[in-house]
C-alpha cells in the first residue's frame, strides 16, 4: 500500500471515529478499541498455536470400543502442559467429551497419543457420527482438528 493509500485510510478512520454527536463518537471509539484488541489477541493466539499443533486424527473401531490415534508436533525444545480433549457426537444424539492425561517434558518433534473409548459408550449411545480433538497448551486452546 502506498503512502497516499495509508493516508486516505487513516483519514477515513479518523472521520469515522470523530463524525457525529458525542455519544456516537464515544461508541465509535469503543468499537475501534474493541477491534484493535481483537486483532491484537488474534495475533497473540497465532504465536501460541505455532508452538504445538495437531497433524491428524484416526478413529479405529475395535471389538472393545474405539481408539483415537492423535499425531501432533511440538516446535519448542521442551513442552509442558499439553492436554487433548476429544468431543464425540453419537448416533443416538448424545455429545460427550473425553480428556487425555496431561503431557509434560515432551521434546521437540513429532509425537502420537491415544484416547480409548470403551464399548459401553457404543452400546449406550450408539456409533460415533462426528468427532473433533482440541489441543490445550498450558490451559490455552492452540489447535483444533475435526473429522
Care to describe what's here?
This protein is an alpha+beta fold and 147 residues long. It has 2 domains: 3-49, no CATH class; 52-146, Immunoglobulin-like (Sandwich), CATH 2.60.40.10. It contains 3 helices and 7 strands; from the N terminus they run ααβββββαββ. The longest helix is centred in the N-terminal third of the chain and has 28 residues, at 22-49. 12% of the residues are buried. The model is unreliable at 44-49 (pLDDT under 50).
Please sum up the structure shown.
By secondary structure, the chain is α+β, with helices and mostly antiparallel strands. It has three helices and seven strands, in the order ααβββββαββ. It has two domains: 3-49, no CATH class; 52-146, Immunoglobulins (Immunoglobulin-like, Sandwich).
